[in-house]
Every structure is written in C-alpha cells, then in structure tokens.
Amino acid sequence: MKIFVQFEDIKNSFRKLLKRFPLETVMIIIITSIIFFVIHKEDFSGWIPRTLYTLATTFFFLLGTTLYVESRKSDRWNYLFLLLPITYGVVFYFMNPYTGQDDLKAIVFFLLHLFGFGFAILFAPYLKNIFSTKKDTSIEHANYFTLVSWTKIMSGIVGGSVLLLGFIAIGSVVELFDLSGTFFREKIYAYWATIALSLVAPLYALIHFPIPKEIKQDSYDTNRFFSFLVRFVGIPFILVYFIILYTYSIRVLMNFHDWPNGIISWLVIGFSIFGYLVYIFSESYVGEGKFLRVFRKYFPFAVLPQILMLFYAIYLRIAQYDLTMNRYFVIVFGVWLTIISLYYTISKRKLILFIPATLTLISIGISVGPWGVFSLPLDRQYERFISNIEKAGILQNGKIHPLVKTIDVNLENEIISEVRYICEYRTCEKIRPLFEQVLTAAEEENKKQWDTSSSFGRDYSGLSAWTAATAINKTMGVQQRYENDYMTYQKYIHVSTGYDE
After folding, report:
1. How far is the first Cα of the chain from the last one, in angstroms, to the nearest whole number?
2. What Rg do the C-alpha atoms of the chain give, in angstroms?
3. CA 20 to 30 Å from 26, out of 20, 170, 322, 331?
C-alpha cells in the first residue's frame, strides 16, 4: 500500500512539473538524449556541440522567463514572453562562433551566456521590484534566494547520490558476472552518470523549485544549515582572507618598487565574491547576533581598498604587455566589485537582487560587440603584434620577411606570445591574410596526417591553434629565447602562457 502511495506521489509530482515547466522538461530530455548519442558514437563534433550549447543556455533563459510570467497577474498574453527564449535559442545557434575545432571563443561565449541566464533565475520573478520603491520586498527576496539555493544544493546531493549508488550497483554486476572489457565496462558508467546528472538532478530541481507567489513576505525563512555556514564558516574565513589581503597590501606599499604578485587580482575577486555571497545569505540571520550586523555594515567598505590594489596590479601588466582576455575579465570584475561595493555603502535599499542582476547584464553585455571580451583584447594584441613585427623588420611593405639577424630577446618573445594568443581565436583568423600560404600548407599537411593516422572515423577537426602558431613563428624565424637570469626566465614563461604573474 505504501509503495502505491509513493508511486501516486511521484506521478502527481511529474504531473505538476509538466504543467509548470513543460518546455524545460522537454529540453532536459533532449539534452540527455543527445549526450547518450555522443557516448554511443564517441564523437563530440559537427552539430552536437553547437546544439548542446544552445539548449543549455536557452534552458536557463526559458526558466527565468517562466518564473517572470508566474509573478505577473494572470493574462492570456503572458505566455507570449516565452517566445523570447525560443527566438534567442535560434539566434544563439547561428551566432555561436563554434567552428568545429577546440575554439576558445566558442567556449567562453557559451559560458558567459550560461552563467548570465543562470544568474537571471535568482531575480526573474522580482524584475519589476529592482526599479520600484513602492514596497519593501527585501524579506521576500532573501527567502526566495535562500529557497532557490537550497533547491540547487539538494538537487546536487540527489544527483550525486544516484550517481554513486548506481556506480556501486554497476560495479558489483560487472565484477560478479565477469563483464570486464564488455560494453558494460566501456560505456555503462557514462550512461548512468548522464542519467543521474543530466536527467534526475535537474528534474528534481524543477519539481522542488519555489513558487514566487508562495514565498513568505513578512518573516525570514531561516535554515539552520545556512545559519551555521554563514556564522561559523563563511564570516570567519572572510576575516582570515581579508587579513591576508591587507597584510600583503602593506607589504607591497612598503616595497613599492616591486611588482605585486599577479595572482593578487584574482584573489581579491574570489575573496570578494565569496564575501558578497555570505553577505546575501546573512540577511536572513541579522537578528541572531551583533557580529552579523557589524559584518554587513562594514564588509563593502573593506572591499574598496582591495579593489585599488587589484587595479594597480592589473595596470602594471596591461602597461607592459597590453590587454588579454584574462586581464579584460579582471578589469570587468574590478569595475563590477566597485559598483556593488559603492551601492551597498551608499544606497539605503541594499537589494540583494542587485548582485545577480548586474552579473547577468555584464555576462551578456561583454559577450558581444567591439567592446566585448573577444574583440577588444584581440584588436589590441593584433595592433601590438603588427607594431612589433614592423619594429623587428619582419613586416615590410605589407609582406613577411623572415628574420636574418638577432633581435632583442624581449621583442622576440613578445611576438611569439602575441601569435599564440591571436591564434586561439578561430585558428589565427585575425592574421591569416599575412600568412595565408603558410596556414594553407599547414592545414594540408595536418589533414594528410589525420587521414593516414588512426582517427577512428571521426570528422577532421581542423588545424589546432598551437600547430598554426608554431608554423607562423617558424616562418618569421622567431623562437623562444631567455636571458640568463632565473627571474627573467620565469617572467617569459608567464608571458608566453598568458598567466599574469
């Protein structure tokens, strides 16, 4: 009888799921099916990456739109809003810069949109409240944020548990029935991981996703688990992190002639984001102790001086080696942290929705346009590259002439670094007109090697960025060289790999 009741509960849950999130459920099933196909064919190329990228980003956009529609008054025209994510999906499919190769631009473009719309579900039901001052909805916002976060955590636990228990069962069957080396041994683990993480976990999250109209508006929905994490884990570690940052800042100020360690920029960003995450969750527990109130009052002020250190460290590197994607992200996050910190120090409202809303705008905004993370750094590096090869005598009257004499080691290493960076984008597309014959010959040779090697019937993936950059550098007659001292050697290691040390 109990089994029958449980079956009815499951059936009712799925009925409600299909009624509330029909399109999202269909997309989850399609994504899972495509991943099954990839595992079966052992091929992740052609239309598959572009389709999966599109479905994943459209899923979060669609979920956010559905939540926004739920928050509005009942209107038969509300569901016209759902045309937005569908239209976006079509546009994204054709705008995605995936070229069939290991394209850095396509991956970053996908991740920016994925995180952008992922953040959007944290404020979608309350989009109008961001610009309205008529009603104080801060309690409702905090409760919604907590419930959504708890749902995500639980879906991860459920998916991970199903994954682990399934692996134990599969492993037992494989060993007991001597199935090693068979189909079961090769692919069954991958199939089960797909079921657990791509099907069970997201469906669980959708089934238990909070309904905006049912969120408490007059009292905080507290959670002992989050309370413990905020009070006894989050805040103490933030205190430790910022003691480290301020101690290092004092050291830099006392030795101003030395460059600050490049990783300081990312530490400031990481520690500050973690701090603001705790800041958001702590709103529901401000009544549980004076220490929490002190933290919320002074934390934004503590971030501001560290942002100055961030900009100082990144300025030195941009002045020396110009802009790259990594440095672009540091600047963007630095500007975002400045806006957030000033908002929470000056504004009286202090909406927690402001954080995910600004992250969504920034993530989508920097993915397109001449100001974006792809165009601006690439254009700057291209201009610097042209200037350097002209200075070295490699580019004369619009044509490439191999080096015939030794040039400055700094200049030579910069040229190599710039070629490698530029070639990460669609295999040197930006400088292809200068090296058309070289790249064509390299592609023909690479294709010939692919056809004669064991490629398991997969489609030709194209010339890799590394192979293309190597061919170009060889044509120019440049090679990596290091001065004798150890520090200079380390410096060029970091420059050539793009690591901002």
Report:
1. 65
2. 27
3. 170
Torsion, Cα 469 472 478 480, to 10 degrees, reads 10
Q: Cβ-count burial of 408 within 10 angstroms (0-12 exposed, 13-18 middle, 19+ buried)? A: exposed
Q: Cβ distance 48 to 35 under 8 Å? A: no
DSSP letter for each residue of 83-99: HHHHHHHHHHHHH----
What is the residue whose two structure tokens read 């590394």? 466
The span from the CA of 143 to the CA of 136, in Å, is: 13
- Tens of pLDDT along 164-217? 999 999 888 888 887 766 555 678 899 999 999 999 999 999 999 999 888 988
Rounded CA separation 363/108 (Å): 10
Supply φ then ψ for residue 396, to 5 degrees: -135, 120
Q: Are 40 and 187 in contact (CB under 8 A)?
A: yes
Alpha-carbon distance 389 to 414, whole Å?
10
pTM listed for this prediction: 0.87
State the residue for tokens 């120019």.
476
Task: Give whole-number Cα distances, 453 to 450, 458, 464, in Å.
Answer: 5, 11, 16
Distance CA 296, CA 286 (A): 8
> 399: part of which helix (H) or strand (E)?
strand 399-400
Asked if 430 contacts 465 with a C-beta cutoff of 8 angstroms, the reply is no
The dihedral built from the CA positions of residue 90, 92, 96 and 102, taken in this order, carries a sign that is negative
Distance CA 61, CA 54 (A): 11
